[in-house]
Amino acid sequence: MPSDQPLIQFDWIVNNLGEIGRRLGEHIEMTVIAVVIGFVVSFGLALLIRRYRGLSGPVLAVSGVLYTVPSLALFALLLPFTGLSLLSAEIALVSYTVLILVRNILAGLESVPPDVSEAAVGMGLTASQRLWRIELPIALPVIVAGVRIATVTTIGLVTVTSLIGQGGLGYLIVVVGINQFFATAIYVGALLSVALAVGADLGLLRLQRALTPWSQARAE
Amino acid sequence: MEFARAVIAWLVDPAQWSGPGGIPTRIGEHLLLSIGPLLAAVLVALPIGLYIGHTGRSALLAVNLANIGRALPSLGIIGIFLPITAGLGLGFGVPPTVIALFALAIPPIITNTYAGLREVDPELIEAGRGMGMRETELLTRVELPIAMPIVLAGLRTSAVQVVATATLGAVLGTGGLGRYIIDGIKQQDDPQLFVGAVIVALLAITTELSFAALQRAAVSPGIRRSGRLPTAVDAEVPRPSG
């Protein structure tokens, strides 16, 4: 990197707003795919664990080990089988969300006071009515807290997918920035990634408050 | 199983077991890259965490650091320091990586040290004061022994994250195990990147398990006998590393 290069070249940013916006869009798209699929998988796993308690140990152990594997290594482990593809990226991203989401969905459902569940039984609600109408609404704040952590984490990890040929803000950081010794692209990519993470976190918090107005008074 | 054969062929090649590109050298480089920043982060973050936890001052900082740390993409941090070290004439590969690893290791240690000290029953601290202990004695003989498992949980999160993120140093051209993955992708050499990924994964898991064992061993004997183990051993949900 030439030392006379200014750290931020604003004219580059202005001239490349289209490209920057496109990379931001890709980043959001990859994040949403991972969190949505991760949530569906985790929700299913959490319900299974509630029915078959014995599954809890193995599911949490496997997702815990996956969680420890560094992201670049997990991507690389998939490459020989699924190639430099969006599929490889998403498989790894989804598996990272599972530990956080399963844990929080279970914790949320367990936070339902037993007398509330009993009252619902007494009112004659079936198991699935209890789940959808009583337990999930009460569990929602804890579940959304999990979704927030999973989303923020995924946004950071998506930057690494640029190393296996994907787009997103990591493309600006690595391909345009580091590989060509161009500081401005590194800063734009990194700052937008942080801004996206903070924005998503606050947005989800607002969504949760809007969905559960009764939990306002309760501390987070 | 063509791929399995290729992996074995790569592994039995003597070139992988000695010399500058060999597996032992790469593991050594990886550990060397990780240990310095981790130790430096402990030296900086532990006193800050102890101060905040003991006095309760700037507690908001300790809590928010965890969230900020989570929002920072590790690849972005490595990238951010590259133009700075290059501009200062410090170099391109190891310096920005080491600084980034140091920065990443700090938040979990501060947050957990603070959380650990806050968990200590205030009555115990009062009792210590009543016995005439000075503030430093309270910290080293009452608070820290009780909080130790949670403090070490923070160290564990940091260590795993540093070992994981050191892999990304290869993007800037450092040595270490990330070389196998980055070079493997460039050379379309699947066996190389696959074996590299397996070793990186094993190293991260070994780090995690070693620190978990250390954490269990650090429970103060008095607390172990009383059977009242500290509850919040995972004060913070760890985040996937690198």
Description:
The complex is a heterodimer of chains A (220) and B (242). Chain A is an all-alpha fold and 220 residues long. Helices cover 78% and strands 0% of the residues of chain A. Chain A has nine helices and no strands. Chain A has helices at 10-15, 17-51, 56-68, 71-82, 86-110, 114-122, 127-158, 169-178, 183-211. The model of chain A has no long low-confidence stretch (mean pLDDT 90). Chain B has 242 residues and is an all-alpha fold. In chain B, 75% of the residues lie in helices and 0% in strands. In chain B, helix 7 (135-166) packs antiparallel against helix 9 (190-217). The longest helix of chain B has 33 residues, at 23-55. Chains A and B meet through helix 3, helix 4, helix 5, helix 7 and helix 8 of A and helix 3, helix 4, helix 7, helix 8 and helix 9 of B.
List keywords for this structure.
heterodimer; A: 220 residues; mainly alpha; B: 242 residues; elongated
Short description:
The complex is a heterodimer of chains A (220) and B (242). Chain A is an all-alpha fold and 220 residues long.
Sequence-ordered SSE layout with sheet pairings:
The complex is a heterodimer of chains A (about 220) and B (about 240).
Chain A: H1 10-15, H2 17-51, H3 56-68, H4 71-82, H5 86-110, H6 114-122, H7 127-158, H8 169-178, H9 183-211
Helix pairs in contact in A: 2-5, 2-7, 2-8, 3-5, 4-5, 5-7, 6-7, 7-9, 8-9
Chain B: H1 2-12, H2 23-55, H3 59-71, H4 74-87, H5 94-119, H6 122-130, H7 135-166, H8 178-186, H9 190-217, H10 221-226
